[in-house]
Write a structure and sequence with these properties.
Blueprint (H helix, E strand, L loop, with lengths): L2 H17 L10 E3 L8 E4 L4 H4 L3 H15 L3 E7 L2 E6 L1 H13 L11 E5 L11 H19 L3 E8 L4 H13 L5 H4 L3 H25 L1 H10 L6 H7 L1 H7 L2 H14 L3 H25 L5 E4 H4 L4 H9 L3 E3 L5 E4 L7 E5 L7 H16 L3 E7 L3 H13 L8 E6 L2 E3 L2 E2 L10 H19 L7 H21 L7 E3 L1 H4 L7 H18 L15 H23 L3 H20 L8 H24 L9
Parallel strand pairs: 5-6, 5-11, 6-7, 11-12, 13-15
Antiparallel strand pairs: 1-2, 2-4, 3-4, 8-9, 9-10, 13-14
The chain binds one RNA strand of 77 nucleotides through helix 17, helix 18, helix 21, helix 22 and helix 23.
Length: 613
RNA sequence: GGCUUUGUAGCUCAACUGGAUAGAGCACUUGACUACGAAUCAAGAGGUUGCAAGUUCGAAUCUUGCCAAGGUCACCA
């Protein structure tokens, strides 16, 4: 039994014996003791004033005496106000450390349960950007966390490879590309396709502008504007209608989409070619980010799914049909609106597809837990989807989870493609690695290493800075991205944690072979030694909490706290030249375990540790 | 307008899910390398937790009402 469980159960027992009142051990309120007081854990005794009919101080005395008498792992206590501070024995900490040191891995064994996590899910008309990076880090990290808890994790990505967007890129390339390839243009292939998407938008904007000034455009403006509406505002809102009803290249793009749906050879071949370019580019980006998927779903294969489920739902009267033939679901009793699930012409909408793919995924992999890492702008969509699946009686309905995360804003405001303020993922990685390189060269610690090794270390440091910067923020919050801070290597950053790790490796290497079996003879642990073991002790709890809440930021701040505790321990104690052999053995073991935990924790965030830096 | 998320130091973020004097980093001031790695450590300054009530031994956290910002409410995906 762990020490916190001992305290909880002991307190429950004490309340029962001393005050004749039953409480649940899990409800015992226990915290780590604040630094300014003596002790390791504190029990809050206020809740027992009513049943004990005593003052909090007296209850603290009663409970403290009971616990210290009964359990040899608790050696001392003091009471301040309503807080009972308990001191854990050095022996217990020492033994705990020995137990962790003996473990072969910090991972939990496989227990057979499955979970599917969908993340990234890009469109194929442009390269990945900062928003994708946050998505990917959250998805990847959640996958790693669940793997660490013994789950069979399936990482999947949906590729939105069809639709009007890719047709825009295709059309622009067809019109102006002269058969050029990305290689010929010397541009990374996904960026090359993105370039043609931008070209299309330029062309469209120019066409729209001309139309606005034409007699036809002015006529539309004067007849359709709301009173007092400015011309600029009107045309901004009219853009989609213009695209669909007036635009020449708009109708050309739509015609292309129709041809695609009709399996036109020429269009399909062009589509395959350009999507191929995009995938090639994505692969490089993913590889550089250090991530991979177990399975891909292409929207072009799945966009027709779901109709049979709608039929099924109609017969079960979960959905209803309007006169025009469109199919809806009434969610008013769940405080939502009526929602369309099938168009009047019988074609699918987004929701139809998602209903179909969730079922397909369950059939493919059989996971009762399925997670969607998607930005919070789609909260409503997933709420509706999950409600529908529940009403359809899907066995996995309760295991569906939307890992909703906030958007990333820049210090200068929102990212907007129209204003060219999109932060590109490839550029970003390049910049952080550059910054790490410049810094490392200045430090000069890596001199003498082979170039390839140096490059690998720059990459690890740069990516650690970037990844940690993003993942340390609570997932659900909108975050502000400051490019200057993202390359910082000091303070609450990934490289700070890497640095602690590197120092540990350096010490272990210099110490050589040390017999740690005598570590248990070391007594009189110092405060920073205890603090560090206390951090190690928290690992399981933190991983569990991260998993339950799908929030890796807990692990990020845990790793930081751990590195900080290590730095303080390292300041207070000599390790190789310790005052005794026992102390040395103990501290070497503490260093080993700390290093393992740091590496384990950071790997859960998708961050690699260098051996030197 | 309905629903929803957020509001904490100059800035970026925490706060173990209701506990002690709200903590870190950056920036600012200062001290510590001939040292097991200074990408470090230590110290200082910086707060009416958006505002106002309520709940209780105790509220940044729960409730209500305001204020502000984002999201969403498409036969788009």
């Amino acid at each position: 039994m762990s020490i916190t469980e001992i305290i909880k159960e002991g307190t429950a027992l004490a309340v029962k014996e001393l005050y004749d009142h039953e409480i649940n051990a899990n409800d015992v309120n226990i915290n780590t003791t604040r630094k300014e007081f003596d002790g390791d854990y504190s029990v809050v005794v206020f809740p027992y004033t009513k049943v004990a009919r005593k003052k909090p101080e007296q209850i603290g005395e009663d409970l403290g005496k009971y616990l210290v008498d009964k359990y040899e792992d608790l050696t001392n206590f003091n009471v301040i106000k309503g807080f009972l501070n308990l001191e854990v024995s050095d022996k217990y900490w020492n033994q705990y450390l020995a137990d962790v040191a003996e473990k072969e891995t910090l991972k939990k064994p496989f227990h057979g349960e499955k979970i599917m996590i969908e993340f990234s899910s890009p469109n194929t008309n442009k390269p990945l950007h900062l928003g994708h990076v946050r998505n990917i880090l959250l998805g990847w990290s959640s996958s790693k966390i669940y793997e660490a808890l013994g789950y069979d994790v399936q990482k999947v990505q949906v590729i939105n490879d069809r639709g009007i967007a890719i047709c825009k890129s295709m059309l622009a390339w067809q019109m102006m590309g002269n058969g050029e390839t990305p290689q010929e243009a010397g541009i990374k292939s996904d960026h090359y396709v993105g370039k043609w998407y931008v070209e299309f938008e330029k062309l469209f904007q120019a066409e729209y502008k001309t139309w606005q000034e034409s007699a036809e455009g002015q006529a539309v403006f004067s007849t359709q504007k709301k009173d007092e509406q400015e011309e600029v505002t009107f045309f901004k809102g009219f853009k989609n209608t213009y695209f669909n009803e007036h635009s020449k290249i708009g109708s050309a793009a739509k015609a292309m989409l129709l041809k695609w749906e009709g399996n036109d050879d020429e269009v399909r071949n062009l589509w395959k070619k350009m999507n191929g370019w995009v995938y090639e580019g994505f692969d490089t980006t993913y590889k550089n980010l250090g991530i991979e998927f177990d399975n891909l779903y292409y929207e072009s294969n799945t966009y027709l799914l779901g109709k049979d489920i709608i039929d099924d739902g109609l017969s079960k009267e979960i959905f209803y049909k309007k006169e025009d033939g469109s199919v809806w679901i009434d969610l008013e009793d769940a405080k939502m609106d009526h929602k369309l699930v099938l168009r009047s012409d019988g074609t699918s909408v987004y929701m139809t597809q998602d209903i179909g793919t969730v079922e397909k995924r369950f059939q493919d992999f059989g996971a009762k837990k399925m997670v969607y890492v998607v930005a919070d702008e789609q909260n409503h969509h997933f709420k509706v989807l999950f409600e529908i699946m529940k009403r359809m009686g899907a066995s996995y309905a309760d295991g569906l989870f939307h890992l909703s995360y906030g958007m990333i804003n820049l210090t200068t405001g929102k990212m907007k493609s129209r204003e060219g303020t999109i932060v590109d993922a490839d550029d970003l990685m390049k910049e952080v690695i550059e910054a790490a390189r410049a810094n490392a060269i200045e430090k000069g610690e890596l001199e003498g290493l082979e170039e390839a090794k140096k490059e690998d270390i720059y990459r690890k440091i740069g990516l650690a800075a970037l990844k940690f910067f993003i993942i340390k923020v609570n997932a659900r919050k909108t975050m502000i991205f400051n490019p200057e801070e993202s390359v910082d290597l000091q303070g609450n950053t990934g490289p700070y944690i890497q640095y602690a790790y590197v120092r540990i490796q350096s010490i272990l290497k210099k110490a050589g072979e040390v017999d740690t079996s005598i570590a248990s003879k070391y007594t009189n642990l110092g405060p920073t030694e205890k603090e560090l073991i206390g951090q190690i002790y928290r690992l399981d709890e933190v991983v569990k909490m991260s998993a339950d809440q799908f929030d890796p930021s807990f692990i990020a701040s845990y790793c930081y706290d751990m590195a900080k505790s290590y730095s303080r321990f390292n300041r207070d104690h000599k390790i190789i030249k310790a005052e005794s052999e026992e102390a040395k053995a103990f501290r070497i073991r503490l260093c080993q375990v700390t290093g393992e935990v740091l590496e384990f924790g950071m790997n859960l965030l998708g961050i690699e540790m260098p051996e030197r830096m």
